[in-house]
Amino acid sequence: MKKNNYIEKFRKRNLLPFEKSVFDQVINLIPKRGNILDLGCGNGYPYDYYFYSKEFNLISINFCEKHIKEIKKINLKAKYFIDDIMENLYYKNNRKT
């Protein structure tokens, strides 16, 4: 049986040059070791990995437990949540008051 290496091949990547340029500008606007909320963090590459390498505090949310398990390998200090933000937004915007 052939091993599925999808994550290693396609999901673990570095920032593209234009992404790095934008993120380098963004981090200048955030206090050193400031907080970053990543909604839909996936497996953490490349964005959470980049912010972690710059010593920012991360709060990451994704609906896929498998991706949260992967991202925990990057940074055990971050806070991770398994949740579907779209479902919660839909519920709050459409509930009867």
Describe this structure in words.
- With 97 residues, this protein is α/β, with parallel strands linked by helices.
- The protein has a single domain (12-94), classed as 3-Layer(aba) Sandwich (Rossmann fold).
- It contains 5 helices and 3 strands.
- The protein has helices at residues 6-11, 17-27, 47-53, 65-71, 85-94, and strands spanning 35-39, 57-62, 79-82.
- It has a 3-stranded parallel β-sheet with strand order 1-2-3.
- The protein is globular and about 45 Å long.
Tell me the span between the first and last alpha carbons.
54 Å
The H-level CATH homologous superfamily, spelled out, is Vaccinia Virus protein VP39
Give a count of the beta strands, DSSP E runs of length 2 or more: 3
* Strand content range: 15-25%
Q: Topology of this protein?
A:
Blueprint: H1 6-11, H2 17-27, E1 35-39, H3 47-53, E2 57-62, H4 65-71, E3 79-82, H5 85-94
Keywords:
3-stranded parallel sheet, 15% strand, alpha/beta, globular, 97 residues, Rossmann fold
Summarize the structure in short:
The chain contains five helices and three strands; from the N terminus they run ααβαβαβα. The chain has 97 residues and is an alpha/beta fold.
